[in-house]
Structures are given as C-alpha cells and as structure tokens.
C-alpha cells in the first residue's frame, strides 16, 4: 500500500503517548471532538480557546504565592492541554487540516508558556532580582528547542512508522516557493513556520541521509513496505517514548509543583540544567537507532 493511500487515524499514535495523555487528556478530548464537530466548531476556534486559558494560567501564576491561584493556574493549563489535544483530532475528523492551522496550534502553545513564564518572572523580578529575566529567557529559548525536537521526532515516527502523509517533514525550499501570492497574515505565519522548521531540523537529530535512505527503501521495496514500517516501529517506538520527558504535560506538572512549593525559579533551572543534557543524550541515541535500523532492515530485504 502506498503512503498516500493509507487512511489517517483521528487519534494520536497510542504506542508513543505517555500516560497522562492516554488516561487523562485524550479521553476528554476524544469525548469533545464529535460534539464540537456536530456544532460546526472549527479546529482554529478550539486552538484559540485553549490559548485564552493558557493566557489566564499566566495571570494566575503571577500570584503563585497564593496557593489557590497556583491551583487555578494549573487548572487553566489543564484545560489548555485538553483543547490542544482536541484541535488536531477535530481537524483530522473534519478533514480541515491546513498549514495555517498547524502554525496557529504551535503559536497557541507558545503563547501559553510565554504567558506563564512572563507571569512568574514578573513576580520573581520583584522578589529576587530583575536579572532573573536572563534565566527565564534562557529557559524559554531552550524550551522552544526541546519541544520542537520532541514534536519533530513524533512526526517522523508517524510518517515513517505508520505512513501518515500529513506528518511528513516539510521541505524548506518548497515552503519558500509557496510564499508567493500569500496574504500578509499568511506570509507572516509561513515565515514563522519556516523558521520553526529550520530550528527543528538543526536540533532534533533528524538525519537527511537517513531520511533519503528510508525513502528509497520504501520506494524500491513496495511489496515489503509493511515489514519495513513494522521494523521501524519496533526499533523507534521505545526511543520516542523516552522523548516524552520533553512534553508539555510534564512541564505543566513541574511548573505547578515548583509554584505550589513556593520555588518557581527551580523550574527554570530544571529546563536549563536537566532537560538540555537529556536532549543531547536523546539526539545521540536517535542517531544510533538510525544505524541499527539500517543494519536490521537488510534482514527483511
């Protein structure tokens, strides 16, 4: 079966999901999706609703010294997570996926965390020192790199392991060509998307040579595509689950724990001093898995 012929699931790929999504976020999102579709609610409307709650979480966390406000911030972030899990499923169900929607979804995610970071930093700058902004901004930049790498690894798994065409890594040259004739707003969003994809490629450990080799394997062995994809899933699924430590869910939990304990600064150092070395390790591990896959795939050809 060719890549384009494979039907795409509405839900996310279960074998690489971490438990908070499997047992908490996505069941609620899956319950919401058909009900929103029946009311003609669009995925972009869901994304923007989630962003609103993300912004409110930043306002609440600004007053993290009050335990009730810290709890409110966590609840608002939980609602954002549900909306974030709903918009993509709704887009796939209603077949309304678009480049604009993907970029908007990403923008809403970052608006949420920027709001929370700024809300907390404004308090810390008064409590500790205005120079705390250097730590917060540094953590935020590393957050963008870590999250971008994680999301790209997930997309790569969906594309190569399950043949999902919509998960294919965009080509920068094609994205630049598509800029011609776009409206100002679409042009701005597309430029943001191009920059984001460049960043993902640079820091995710995705190897262009490995991609080319895998594409050739699938194209030249059409009768063994299922076996090749099954081997890909066998080798890479455990590794992708390891990348889940970079997911937004765990960051939200870490923010809440740091704030409710009265030490939100610890969260920013967690991103800098803990998650960054883990990212470096995961990238190196992914490259070793690439080599392992190319060795083992010879057994089924």
TrEMBL record:
GO molecular function term, any single one: phosphotransferase activity, for other substituted phosphate groups
Pfam families (UniProt xref): CDP-OH_P_transf
Keyword presence, Cell inner membrane: no
Cross-referenced InterPro entries: CDP-OH_P_trans, CDP-OH_PTrfase_TM_dom, CDP_ALCOHOL_P_TRANSF_CS
Annotated signal peptide: none
Keyword entries, A-Z: Membrane, Transferase, Transmembrane, Transmembrane helix
GO cellular component: membrane
Membership in a protein family: Belongs to the CDP-alcohol phosphatidyltransferase class-I family.
Protein name: CDP-diacylglycerol--serine O-phosphatidyltransferase
């Amino acid at each position: 079966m060719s890549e384009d012929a494979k039907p795409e699931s509405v839900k996310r790929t279960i074998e690489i999901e971490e438990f908070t999504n499997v047992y908490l976020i996505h069941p609620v999102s899956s319950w919401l999706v058909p009900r929103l579709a029946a009311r003609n609610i669009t995925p972009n409307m869901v994304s923007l609703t989630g962003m609103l709650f993300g912004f409110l979480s930043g306002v609440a966390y600004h007053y993290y010294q009050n335990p009730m406000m810290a709890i409110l911030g966590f609840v608002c972030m939980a609602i954002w997570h549900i909306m974030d899990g709903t918009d993509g499923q709704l887009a796939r169900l209603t077949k309304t996926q678009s480049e604009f929607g993907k970029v908007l979804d990403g923008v809403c995610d970052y608006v949420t965390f920027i709001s929370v970071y700024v809300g907390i930093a404004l308090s810390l700058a008064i409590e500790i020192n205005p120079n705390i902004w250097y730590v917060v901004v540094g953590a935020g930049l590393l957050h963008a790199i870590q999250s971008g790498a994680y999301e790209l690894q997930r997309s790569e798994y969906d594309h190569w392991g399950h043949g999902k065409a919509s998960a294919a890594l965009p080509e920068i040259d094609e994205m630049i060509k598509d800029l011609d004739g776009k409206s100002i707003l679409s042009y701005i969003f597309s430029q943001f998307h191009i920059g984001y994809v460049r960043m993902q490629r640079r820091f995710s450990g995705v190897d262009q040579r490995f991609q080319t080799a895998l594409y050739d394997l699938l194209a030249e062995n059409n009768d063994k595509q299922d076996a090749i994809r099954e081997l890909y899933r066998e080798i890479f699924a455990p590794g992708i689950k390891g990348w889940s430590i970079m997911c937004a869910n765990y960051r939200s939990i870490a923010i809440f724990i740091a704030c409710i304990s009265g030490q939100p600064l610890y969260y920013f150092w967690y991103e800098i001093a803990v998650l960054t070395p883990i990212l470096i390790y995961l990238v190196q591990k992914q490259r070793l898995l690439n080599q392992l896959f190319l060795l083992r795939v010879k057994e089924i050809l």
